[in-house]
Amino acid sequence: MRIKLALTVIVAIASLSVAGVGRLKETYNDHFGSQASSGENADEALELAEVSEHHLETQGNADHHAVAEHGGGEHHAEHKIVVTSPVSTDVTLTQQYVCQIHSRRHIEICALEGGYLNEIGVGEGQTVKKGQSLFRILPTLYEARLDADMAEAQLAEVEYSNTQSLVQQNIVSEQELKLAKAKLAKALAKVKLAQAEMNFADIKAPFDGIVDRLHEQEGSLVEEGAMLTTMSDNSVMWVYFNVPEARYLEYQAALNAGQDRDSLNVQLKLANHQIFNQPGKIGAIEADFNNETGNIAFRADFQNSEGLLRHGQTGTILIHKIENDAIVIPQRATYEILAKKYAYVVGEDNVVHQREIVVKNEKDDIFILSEGLAAGEKIVLEGIRQVRDGEKIEYEFAEPETVLANLKNHAE
Length: 412
Hints:
Residues 142-203 form the Multidrug resistance protein MdtA-like alpha-helical hairpin domain. One of its GO terms (cellular component) is plasma membrane. One of its GO terms (biological process) is response to antibiotic. Belongs to the membrane fusion protein (MFP) (TC 8.A.1) family. By secondary structure, this protein is α+β, with helices and mostly antiparallel strands. It has four domains: 2-73; 82-90 and 324-405, conserved putative lor/sdh protein from methanococcus maripaludis s2 fold; 95-100 and 234-323, Efflux pump adaptor protein, beta barrel domain (Elongation Factor Tu (Ef-tu), domain 3, Beta Barrel); 107-230, CATH 2.40.50.100. The chain is 32% helix and 33% strand. It contains seven helices and 19 strands. It has helices at 2-14, 21-32, 39-70, 140-168, 174-200, 245-256, 400-405, and strands at residues 82-84, 87-110, 115-120, 127-128, 133-137, 202-204, 209-211, 221-222, 227-244, 265-269, 280-285, 295-303, 314-330, 335-337, 340-346, 352-363, 366-371, 378-382, 396-397. The strands form two sheets. It has a 15-stranded mixed β-sheet that branches. It has a four-stranded antiparallel β-sheet with strand order 6-5-3-8. A hairpin with a 2-residue loop joins β16 and β17 (366-371). α1 (2-14) runs parallel beside α3, α2 runs antiparallel to α3 and α4 runs antiparallel to α5. The longest helix is centred in the N-terminal third of the chain and has 32 residues, at 39-70.
């Protein structure tokens, strides 16, 4: 019975305020007076209520002191509001495209005739000159065929000479002379064919370049058409990169407006993040778009006199373009709602208004705008979280030149 009374009192105390504990005593006397088995139980319950009252008062004072000390826990230090202006200036924009680097000429060197690979005149990665012998197929069979054909040609020449002498003596007719002449011509043609086959056995470099990996070793039996190696002409490199349709249309519009194709500032950034020391120029554009990606392939040409670039390398094409009289604002002067960007514009009455902006390009920490703001207007740069649309504010003005020069130093 005593435990039950104590629990009832504790529940009642927890549900009442400190000011209502006094009323709890009267409620207890009215409700439990008739049920208490003795005055001792009532006294103990009232004593428990007084202890609980004292605990609640102590806790309330402590909470009030904590709230007063910490300002209610809801106060945040406010930053000063800084305002600046958009500026109209010339901006150099850089477009980046992943690229593949190819040699201007990259060919397969194949065996024109089958046979044993008798001689290899070059090593892997060696630089060769046009006409230099690279491989030689065992020529014994071709030499024998050439000797036989040359012998037949000599015989045909002797027969022609004798027939010509007999015709002059009116011993044979002119028809015999024509037959001898035709036989000589056929023999000489066979000699040329045998000589060509002999030349096929000696494979020479078709241009100045670099020999790649050797696919066959000396002594190997190779078939006609077997690839022996590849060879690259790296004097000029063709660099291919894919351009979106919108950028392609911009490029064509600039050309139609009179811009020279060679006037574009094209650079190549290598895998080590270094810029290649030769400028590039747009050499060609493919005929068709890729229907899956919506891109079209461009080709930039780079002189490679030092031989640094090799076939198959990768890099990044950088195309620099100057945007004249561009409206520029710091990126941190904007905020985004549902994929749209906005800025707070300060009117002449110091009242801020939310305004949607359209970003044309971005570079580092700035946005280049196509719509929304004009040079000379005032926008909130710092303290965006502290202002509301339609509020009147006090602010400090920061010169846009100073702001753009110190964009890395964030205030918020």
